[in-house]
Amino acid sequence: MTIELQTADTTAVREALAAQTIELPSWAFGNSGTRFKVFAQPGVPRDPYEKVADAAQVHKYTGAAPRVSLHIPWDLVDDFADLRSYAEGLGVQLGAINSNVFQDDDYMLGSLCHPDAKVRRKAVDAHLKCIEVMHETGSQDLKIWLADGLNYPGQDNLRARQDRLAEGLSEIYAALGPHQRIILEYKFFEPSFYSTDIPDWGTSLLHCMALGEQAMVVLDTGHHAPGTNIEFIVAQLLRVGRLGAFDFNSRFYADDDLMVGAADPFQLFRIMNEIVDADALRPDSGVNFMLDQCHNIEPKIPAQIRSVMNVQEATAKALIVDRAALHEAQQASDVLGAHSVIMDAYNTDVRPMLADLRREHGLDPHPVGAYAASGYAERIVAERVGGAQAGWGA
Amino acid sequence: MTIELQTADTTAVREALAAQTIELPSWAFGNSGTRFKVFAQPGVPRDPYEKVADAAQVHKYTGAAPRVSLHIPWDLVDDFADLRSYAEGLGVQLGAINSNVFQDDDYMLGSLCHPDAKVRRKAVDAHLKCIEVMHETGSQDLKIWLADGLNYPGQDNLRARQDRLAEGLSEIYAALGPHQRIILEYKFFEPSFYSTDIPDWGTSLLHCMALGEQAMVVLDTGHHAPGTNIEFIVAQLLRVGRLGAFDFNSRFYADDDLMVGAADPFQLFRIMNEIVDADALRPDSGVNFMLDQCHNIEPKIPAQIRSVMNVQEATAKALIVDRAALHEAQQASDVLGAHSVIMDAYNTDVRPMLADLRREHGLDPHPVGAYAASGYAERIVAERVGGAQAGWGA
Amino acid sequence: MTIELQTADTTAVREALAAQTIELPSWAFGNSGTRFKVFAQPGVPRDPYEKVADAAQVHKYTGAAPRVSLHIPWDLVDDFADLRSYAEGLGVQLGAINSNVFQDDDYMLGSLCHPDAKVRRKAVDAHLKCIEVMHETGSQDLKIWLADGLNYPGQDNLRARQDRLAEGLSEIYAALGPHQRIILEYKFFEPSFYSTDIPDWGTSLLHCMALGEQAMVVLDTGHHAPGTNIEFIVAQLLRVGRLGAFDFNSRFYADDDLMVGAADPFQLFRIMNEIVDADALRPDSGVNFMLDQCHNIEPKIPAQIRSVMNVQEATAKALIVDRAALHEAQQASDVLGAHSVIMDAYNTDVRPMLADLRREHGLDPHPVGAYAASGYAERIVAERVGGAQAGWGA
Amino acid sequence: MTIELQTADTTAVREALAAQTIELPSWAFGNSGTRFKVFAQPGVPRDPYEKVADAAQVHKYTGAAPRVSLHIPWDLVDDFADLRSYAEGLGVQLGAINSNVFQDDDYMLGSLCHPDAKVRRKAVDAHLKCIEVMHETGSQDLKIWLADGLNYPGQDNLRARQDRLAEGLSEIYAALGPHQRIILEYKFFEPSFYSTDIPDWGTSLLHCMALGEQAMVVLDTGHHAPGTNIEFIVAQLLRVGRLGAFDFNSRFYADDDLMVGAADPFQLFRIMNEIVDADALRPDSGVNFMLDQCHNIEPKIPAQIRSVMNVQEATAKALIVDRAALHEAQQASDVLGAHSVIMDAYNTDVRPMLADLRREHGLDPHPVGAYAASGYAERIVAERVGGAQAGWGA
């Protein structure tokens, strides 16, 4: 059966979509690549201000991306209050602060898990510095992803590293303000190859539970082994009240960091279906929907616009699932019937509804085209001459 | 550097090896196969008594396999006290009781997670029956592996199934005696294809923590996604005191149930290395080392003997790791040096030491050969004529 | 941009869809399951005639499934001419003949690759028997899938098995009639776990090339390692003129045999996109589009109907790709633009167009509903009482 | 049974080991890392001469690494004849020439497969330049690994890219001298994420067969999907006479480029077992055994020494397999017996035999220790001051 969106009362769906926000990563606008090559793109930002300006373009055309995550030290500025008011002037907020304890030479063999106490001290201090930044930016979330891990069996003691990790996190947690959170990311491989110190949601959750209620798990959709059912993890973390945020992106094999929804749009829909089912889409649910992806060969601003639209489309499909019919079929053990309810929503073309919604809110119905027509891309290429382009190293 | 076992004082190593015990599964002695075909083997047991007799052969030649796990209802007998004394007469104990709630027609769409309360009731009752059996057999561990899961997105509600699971487990847990445990297994796929209701150690652990201190996680070495670092999970579960048991076997891709150590002997060594490192090899550590594997094309008794020997060899290698040198290299951030310490132990041929140890304990140094020479295999082929051979269905 | 199917001239698309045919497997209508359990379903066929009758229902409601593959010996009948005319009376043809050399006890360690020449002889003869059947049924394709492989390193000689395989295939090939083909399937694991003797398309292709022009590769969508780009293989096999057939199904991790399009509908679309791009959809392209999937927990006839519809929908989306725009964007190195052209087609809801097409051809626009309303399901449950239900073993 | 190397006649084994050579990659001595960070190491070479000097150290202590592969343009020098005589003065030869058509900005979307004919021209010319270098260095092998591929479905036409690839290779092949070869590498992912243009051995082989007898396949042990049986591919390529070379390294999940034998030593043994079984170890077999691995966190020279030793140990184990007993057990369908023959060889400690062999040839029995004691590492740290360290980009 097709779902007739034209004639249905989609008021609640539209309201939910209008309230949805997606946070953008500042580093998505800088150069990025693989270990083989970083291909520079003309017009790429040279400082955090220009990154924020580019992110604001995404919000301008989608109306759904009002926050920008920063990465410290990549986005260090002298005056974060100034950066904050600059952002607000462009209609966006500064969002989560991402710590970076993997690029200083001292961190070659780890940061919070390093066998050397001096390196651990330095890594804790780097996080305390991030919390200071958060006070200035008004950020609520300290996102911690560690590159810690081992390349070779025996290289270090797996369990001792967990103990060191717990100790370091504990000191960082103690420094949080009352409305601040640690959101702790897991990743099952890379840049370490034999083991990573937070490889799975179970490990992240154990540390969060040990820390307290202000510690939550970050689920990056690219950080799982093949065959992993990600929406199950979403449901599980929501059930125990510990899903703090998403890092959205998509991947075919490794942590490919492609545009969310590009590799497996059906999976993205299933993830959003769990979110809707648990009523976790509402703005006060405690789940921060963030993008974390890189654009190595495609232009960065339109790629972010497209990604936001992909999340919106998956969300819209999740919102139009006929939950009463679904529940009824599930209770009746009607395997094909229940599956069909899900597929009917997925197979529906929600783009016209989203285009309408944009028009209602004064936006162009076609964000990518509107951005392309704006001349912004050409302008930054012309203007951003000289200086050092931002990338993962700056 | 080679480790000179001939001249070293290996007293502690030998004592640890002599104290190690491995539990055998009764079902390893029956017929098994794939969905394509079960190839019957001559001489296969026709009842639980004959399975126990075969298991006792493995213990007779290895001296290291003094317990047999049972599977209910496959191993139901009229008088478990009689089976118990029969086993003890052969020198072995009855071990863990495995519930089976996946072969009755009612369980097609699940057991403890089924949408229908009547099916859930039946599944809980099946477990309560297992606990009754445990009182008669003297078993301490109720091993729960559920085939519950979904084949299609939407087929049932992922989160509701977790809630039902928690409720069912809670009722079963309440029926445990003071010295009994639930050991809860996870499996990331099969026989369900889209999702399994306990897919990973995190899910199993969450349920165990909710139940109480008598609930522990079972780690089956074949139940992980490709690329998963299993020894990390071992270390993590030991760290939180919740590693209840192993189901040992080996696999190349799926849950292949090959002989442990046959597919990746280095991985088995790394797992035992974490066990030794955490001092969890000692008999009172609470970790039950069990085999759970099937022999589809190879003869069953020698395959179990070989598997026990493989675990012993991996353990022996783990025991001879020079932990002082390892710790020193790790603290010094000497990546290659630390890795070398591990590899030196792994590359050592421990078979002569194990052969000596067997001689010391009055065993033939070559268990497979001794079993082959005993004529037992020919005897059971001759004697076990008529009746229905045991298999996964009985 | 949304593709406006209502107003576009979709004549060519409709003609291509109307000409598309999908072959059904007789075994999809019998009972099937996993190694853990086969759950029987009421009304399941008890002989090949009833299987053909059920398959004819799928064609009746979709108009797109006019052939039925048989499996020998599962579908052996005394008089194939009679079965053929029975099928034709129901509006369907007998299609490919599938050999089965994996269920006789002699085949435990292989068939065409077995170390024992007597077993190889028997396996060749089984195929010659299939060719005889083909003469009676009018079938063109002898589909060969072998369960041959190894569970343990060293079990047999990998290379010698290839030589034996080549020799056996060669004898079978020589017996083909001038309009008959061998279509040779590959599978990367299961039921063997360590190695399979035709694990990948490269191996199948090498054997086909050695045999001659009447040997072609079968691509089963469930028979690849995780992360494999299947549409690349489709394109490659089409390029060298050796794609003989598809075995369609879908899977999340292993050879799950779920309904095609259920696990990753975007992948199915990408596969059909390569087919359309190479003009291989036309009936005389030499590609036989077959289903090969099992319905363990869902009702079998509607699951086949749904599967046929899924293939039709993926095909329709592939047909509406704006290939001129795609080519232009690709030539211009417009990564996002080219990707968008593909996604615009994929995101279009083609179900209304397919419903229209069915109406045009005198079919109910909603095949699943029409079948459900027909009472056929209830009738076979009532009528098929007694006898032995068909399954993988019969 | 243990294999008693002390008393056995191992003359043939020792001769085979003494004749074995392994080629080293120049880039293993430069800095390398991940997309997250390249950690520089003190003493790293600053030019090709210093790389060759470091490689010569590996040969000095192992006696088994007499060739060095170069990477063009990373290793471009003004006078290759001079570099060649420099190398020969240090006791090593210049080996395979590796083309690099992935770091110039023009290659962002591909090289030989690029949609733009101008870029393809440039990529062909880069290879022709490599052939010129080969004439000067006396190299026989032009190793081609392409980073070509796609990140997004639709980005380019999969099949057209194959046609362009065939055309480009054909022109390069035509420029080969009579004793030169193209060796063509495949890789299933990275740096492209959606598809790579030579993802598997089948694709590489098809192109080699189209080119002619001087084109051979390169098997990089890190370039396969999880679960792939690599020794099967080795056996298959040897069977068709197209295994040109190995790129040895090891990996847990992706193309980790760890030291060969570090992640799965049993797999390395199985690979060498196929080599020995096909008599492809002998120097004139046409198989070039090369290392291709990076040392991101461990010191580079000892890591290469260790890697060479790992290959030697795996080879030694393969050489002591009792092939008569293996064949007999295989023919008798003795699954466990045949597997045991393989495992007996694998479980044997061959390090004492290799130490003896080194002594016989005037080498220190412990290469890593001897290198460490030599003071070379300290010397290059002291001497190599100033200049730009070599890395993947230079």
UniProtKB/TrEMBL annotation, chains A, B, C, D:
InterPro entries in the cross-refs: L-rhamnose_isomerase, Rhamnose_iso-rel, Rhamnose_isomerase, Xyl_isomerase-like_sf
One Pfam family from the record: RhaA
UniProt keyword terms in alphabetical order: Cytoplasm, Isomerase, Manganese, Metal-binding, Rhamnose metabolism
UniProt GO molecular function: isomerase activity
Protein name in the entry: L-rhamnose isomerase
